[in-house]
Amino acid sequence: MSGGKNTGAPWSMIIIAMAFGIVIVGLANMDRVIWNWTSHGERLPGQVVDLSSFRTSPGATYLTFVPRVKFTDPGGQPREMNVANGSRYYDFRLGDRVTVLWRAETQSIAIDLPFKRSFGMQIFLWGLTLVGLALLGFALWMALERVRLRKRY
Q: What is the DSSP string of 122-152?
């Protein structure tokens, strides 16, 4: 700020605020992005016909549950397959109706689950998202103020 000229916040501060805002918003919504990436495939009706569980290693303290699902693929062929990736959570019972995500290119399936967060985690991540958006808004405001002041002098 030489000669009494006010040119606003330095660009480095604006860029840092913008970068932190983008990172915070990204981290707060990463679980939603990953869920969206992994929930691809053709949606078909299916039914859970068997449940198995196993330990991923001898020292594992939890079980991995793998449901077996029967469904009819888009070509009309009846199939019965295990879900490609198991879950630590026991979400299914025998006979449950589920939506199968059929992935023809890999000949694998997944069960389409709704996106869920616990209430406390949801509040925390929404708060984090708002902090990130506030940082982005602040950076934008500083940049616009800098441009406005520059035009004035």
A: HHHHHHHHHHHHHHHHHHHHHHHHHHHHHHH
pTM above 0.70, yes or no: no
Task: State pLDDT tens for residues 42-60.
Answer: 899 999 998 888 777 888 7
How many other β-carbons are positioned within 10 Å of the β-carbon of residue 83?
20
Q: How far apart are CA 153 and CA 143, in angstroms?
A: 16
Report helix, strand or coil for 87: strand
Phi and psi at 130, nearest 5°, equal -65, -40
Q: Which residue has the higher pLDDT, 128 or 6?
A: 128
Identify any residues that bridge with 48 across adjacent strands, giving them in sequence order: 69
**In CATH terms, is domain 40-111 a member of 3.30.70?**
no
CA dist 11 and 8 (Å) reads: 9
